[in-house]
Prior knowledge:
mainly beta; Thrombin, subunit H
Amino acid sequence: MFEDAEDIAGFFDSDDGFAVIAIYREGGTGDGVPLAVIPSRPDETVSIFDRKTSSRRNRFLIPKANVPNLKAGDTLEINGEILTVQGVPSLDQTGSLFSVEGH
């Protein structure tokens, strides 16, 4: 996906890249720390009683270097909306980016 740290940094530039600024709060408390995250909101199609419906998901890429202890229950505040990290964040193949889901 990325070749080096410089490639990653470019994507996480909130002015020119794909990132938005989120306020990260460990355990959902405290003043929080601003950090850049890349939102990815794929719609998931599910079948219920032979009817298809879309389920909106909030997924984010976050550099591990910025939040090395990211875990379920932490929160991200984006544009006034508070999203709680769900489940165990997964790392990409390089071990440098977390992929997380928030609700």
